[in-house]
Amino acid sequence: MTLWSNRLMQRYLPDPFIFVILLTFVVFIAGLIFTPSSPLQLVQFWGDGFWSLLSFTMQMVLVLVTGHVLANSPLFKKGLSLMASAAKTPGQAILYVTVISMIASWINWGFGLVIGALYAKELAKKVEKVDYRLLIASAYSGFIIWHAGISGSIPLTIATKGHFTENLIGVIPTSETIFAPFNLIIVLALFIVLPLVNRFMMPAKEDAVIVDPSLLEEHTAEAAAIEKEAVTPATRLENSRVLSILIGIMGIIFLIGYFASKGFLLNLDIVNFLFLFLGILFHGTPKNFLIAVAEAVKGAAGIIIQFPFYAGIMGIMVTSGLGKVISEAFVAISNPHTFPMFAFWSAGILNIFVPSGGGQWAVQAPVMLDAAKTLGVSIPKTAMAVAWGDAWTNLIQPFWALPALAIAGLKAKDIMGFCVFVLFASGIVVSLGMLLL
User: Which of 61, 91, 159, 284 is the least buried, fewest Cβ under 10 Å from its Cβ?
Assistant: First the structure.
């Protein structure tokens, strides 16, 4: 079945840029059919939303670049290499990368995306005959757990005083969402199921796609530092370890103050800040660091070009009311027992078109919270059902895979054949959790 799925994806799944263009047309046509919007209005909604994710786009570029730079520093390479040495067989490599990715994603989604891909690359260098596609797919599969973790945007939003639905539900602490028994049981179940599913998808030896470990080695900053160059005041500054240490220490002092005052509260800016200044310190000199940055930036093209198109799609979904239409359709067929499961499914469908936790909650919250109150369903569970749905279909959404794919040097069609099976397995686990817990 996995072989068939991979062949299907290789043949029919286009480049993520083509995918987002096709998705734009699908949403446009759906907007014409299911909302009173005219074609000109839909084009206006699309254009108005097109640049709404610029700040987030830059954050994602920095996730990729700073993570890549940090991974190519000598000290970090040694650490990842040591972790990878624990795996002796392809099966162990698949299990380890899935678990590590899930743990990192539960802590912070940006952290999980980068660490999982970097660890997978290191495992590919150490473990013979492991399928590289499955290794990267396993690393990406751990991302599904992020919205149930401590960086989940929906549970953190409703736990913050002054959030936009406070007049409806008040402030709901994370003890009732992220750390609620029903959520922790689902998380634990996935920690058992996902590694096993990934392990069972291992192809036969003759079908495995093996990568030459030498192709994964990157000799950028270290090699460039050996170049002969004239010694001038400028080159002394470029190769000064003192400058890197001083600015690196300044960054670390800020982080210590941040964590001392706010606890272990990670967000995308703090993750990027941490990666950036550790990269500066670990590369030793400004020149080594800048050469590593120049190499890392090459993989950011997909993010830069595609994210504005997703912002345009989100503009149509939100402004035309199409997202509300999808949510209301699932509410109409729900009862108090099935509502959390249908909320999860509707969020999963909507996430394909609005791949932003905050943006999706803005669309679904008014409909879902009102329905939950009418049906007498738990508000925290409803919020987490939407959160899980938002994370679930990321498994088949190239939007979030772009950083991991850029680090790995693969295309979306290389891993999506595996991700489809993880989608079904995780969907069953979460659906049962929403029905039974």
Answer: 91
